[in-house]
Design goal:
With 342 residues, the protein is of the alpha+beta class. It has 2 domains: 12-143, 2-Layer Sandwich (Beta-Lactamase); 181-341, Heat Shock Protein 90. It has helices at 12-36, 55-61, 92-99, 145-178, 184-207, 215-223, 242-261, 304-315, and strands spanning 40-45, 50-53, 77-79, 85-86, 106-111, 117-128, 134-143, 213-214, 231-235, 239-240, 271-278, 283-291, 319-325, 328-336. The strands form 3 sheets. Strands 2-1-7-6-5-3-4 form a 7-stranded antiparallel beta sheet. Strands 9-11-12-14-13 form a 5-stranded mixed beta sheet, covered by helices on one side. A hairpin with a 2-residue loop joins strand 13 and strand 14 (328-336). The protein is rod-shaped and about 105 Å long. The termini are far apart.
Length: 342
């Protein structure tokens, strides 16, 4: 009878070899995970020398530090939130290693070799060995550039809205003070129409998040149903600042109101041509030409609409010229084109 074989038992050398291979595979897996993370992570030794960084570090900082040579921080240059230069030996990672404690939530500004900057939050943590000695540190850098830019834009927008609201109330007060009519009903209608014209311009600007709007979009909202039916519109693309849109909106509204009451838009045969352009010398010209009207005569006295028009002209530092021809009013407004974006 054949004796049974002893069960196989691996030797200590074989066990050690297997453990080493398992550790190597695990290390490769860890590095692969770190490389794929979208957040910047790097490590240092106990002296602060950089020993590893992932791809996200390169994408954030725009550089590849020399491993084992450069110390403390992977950024090319560092600044405080206020823009004051910060030495690398005073960085959060240096603090974490020197004081052997985690440092949390410090926000800094980094500068890339090409001069561009980014904002980040640092989260360095010291690493300790089995004996309790500090053997290095790991740091995570969270890019907050877009978040801070969004916050700054929101703050600027809030300030702009506050400024525009104050300015709008001033204009409304001026319209209320200037408007005069023979009856309370006429007064109510006139003031409502003027405030509506002002609101249309401001709504257009608000929809554009208080950025520039086009003159054509302003004309379309101010002229409403008249545009294209009794008013021909001709003009190239011109952008207006919120302030100039408000002023031009009131100017166009008053010209249209006057035409509805006394001019080309008061009769079936009347037509209007509204055109604008910027000439080679940088002068903006807007022309309001009425025709198809009979027995046109200049007003015998200055009315409130004229005061509103002159107020808008002054805000744009421009000039206005009006001629009462035999078949309708010819009105030309001039100002420096640069005033439209001011």
């Amino acid at each position: 009878m054949i004796a049974s074989e002893e069960p196989f038992e691996p030797t200590k050398v074989e066990l050690l070899h297997g453990a080493v291979e398992a550790f190597r595979k695990r290390e490769v897996t860890y590095r692969e995970i770190l490389e794929d993370l979208p957040v910047a992570i790097y490590t240092t030794d106990a002296e602060g020398r950089i020993t590893y960084y992932n791809r996200a570090c390169v994408e954030l900082t725009g550089r590849r530090p020399e491993l084992g040579d450069e110390k403390w921080c992977i950024a090319w240059k560092l600044y405080t939130q206020g823009g004051v230069p910060l030495a690398h030996e005073d960085s959060p990672t240096a603090t974490a290693l020197k004081e052997q404690r985690p440092v949390r939530g410090v926000e800094l500004i980094g500068e890339r070799p090409d001069g561009s900057r980014y904002r980040f939050m640092a989260y360095p943590t010291p690493l300790f060995g089995a004996s309790g000695d500090c053997i290095g540190a790991v740091d995570m850098l969270l890019d907050v550039t877009e978040e801070r830019q969004a916050q700054e834009r929101a703050l600027l927008l809030a300030r702009e809205v506050d400024h525009r609201s104050t300015n709008l109330l001033t204009v409304v007060q001026s319209l209320v003070r200037l408007t005069k009519e023979d009856t309370i009903e006429a007064y109510r209608a006139t003031i409502e129409n003027r405030i509506t014209a002002l609101a249309l311009a401001n709504r257009l600007v608000a929809d554009a998040r208080w950025q520039n709007v086009t003159l054509r979009s302003l004309v379309d909202v101010e002229l409403g149903a008249f545009a294209g039916r009794k008013i021909e519109i001709v003009g190239n693309a011109i952008e207006l600042s919120p302030q100039s849109a408000q002023s031009l909106g009131m100017l166009i509204h008053e010209l249209c109101t006057n035409a509805v009451k006394y001019g080309a838009l008061a009769v079936d045969s009347g037509r209007v041509r509204l055109s604008w352009a910027i000439d080679d010398s940088g002068v903006f010209m807007l022309k309001w030409d009425e025709h198809g009207v009979r027995a046109v005569t200049p007003p015998v006295r200055k009315n409130i609409g004229n005061a509103v028009i002159l107020g808008a002209v002054r805000q744009l530092h421009g000039e206005i010229f009006r001629e009462w021809e035999s078949d309708g009013l010819r009105c030309t407004f001039l100002c420096a084109a640069e005033r439209l974006s001011a």
